[in-house]
Automatic annotation (TrEMBL):
Record's bilayer topology term: Multi-pass membrane protein
Protein name: Zinc metalloprotease Rip1
Pfam families: PDZ_6 (PF17820), Peptidase_M50 (PF02163)
Top EC group: hydrolase
Gene Ontology molecular function: any one: metalloendopeptidase activity
Amino acid sequence: MPGAPAVSYARPVDILPAVVGIVVVVLGILVSIALHEVGHMVPAKKFGVRVSEYMVGFGPTLWSRRKGETEYGLKAIPLGGYVRLVGMMPPAPAGTRPRDGFFSRIVADARDASVSEIRPGEEHRAFYQLSTPKKLVVMLGGPVMNLVIAVVLLAVVFLGIGMPAATTTVESVGDDSAAASAGMLPGDEVVSFDGAPVEEWTQLVGMVNDRAGETVEMVVERDGEQVALEVTPTPAERPLTDDQGYAVTDDAGEPVMIDGALLGVTSEVERQPLPVSTVPEAVWLQVSGTAEAIVTLPVRVYDAAYQAFTDEPRSQDSVMSVVGVGRAAVDTAGADDYTVIARVQLMLMLLASLNIALFMFNLIPLLPLDGGHVVNALYEGAKRTVARVRGAERPGPADVARMMPVAYVVFVLLIGVGAVLMVADVVDPVRLF
């Protein structure tokens, strides 16, 4: 109707990928956190420690149910979780005098809160009573669970779904190309090139590159019969590829070009399972990369903030918050150039990376992270070993409460880093595509 205002309608297909991405990342984070806490809870209960709470999330409780002596629940903010192990900190050593001061009160309050959770007659069930090996099993159980999740996810990606690989079968032939002039057709399977057998597409690419402008015999299999063709590869610049056939890029992300030759054909691509060895290789690659990111975290956080609030583009290897992971999941779900199975793969790899990050991050040797408790257990074990060798009296549990001021400072720093990265991920998120 002339003069009527134009009305636009949002297409459901535009919203669906975002919803799928958000749901996947939230569920992935929740499951990863839940299994992390299971990794702590199961061995703790096995060793007799009373576990009073198992919670996924922080903030107000949305749902909870008590089973036995443990309350299981789900909280409103899916950014973490915890299990409450009774008696994490021993009482003050005999003869300890109360001191004034803010940090001294923090230490005293932490001790009192820990001791108050122990029921009369159950002192032997307190966490601090465990031996050093048992403490290590309990505290490493959570991070190791995240590592196991990552290994399983990567195994599904590489061994189950498989990765796309170029085959020796021709998918398309370009018009006026060297292949078209030679009579090559879609569906032809390349058997040999200049008398040498062709087993992989990357092998054929290398052969063609070395014969620019030369006429060479190439044998293809067509309808069950071998057909000999005379082909003259056209000299041309082409992208440099690695051993897996992926384009090599420079520091700016542009493909590196080299002198070579072209046939003017594309290959059919099919998914093929990779060798089992690729799983530990991928895990090590991500572990080492995450370790480097943790060591350089202050610099990386500064770079992320600087890039977010200046004209400098956000780098793809920038550290991200949970918000950034969610944005990456949305981008993955909405990638139009990828098939459904490819999107699933990218989602699984994203969750695997997240679990590797949780594994490494929790091993930082500072309270309140698991690594801080691991260091404390090792210190306690070392003291007891030295005392046993010297024939001295066995020392009591290490006084973990004295490290609570450090835990508070680390906690505040983590909140600050998380807030900066969340803002950066909203203002200028990492673009995967």
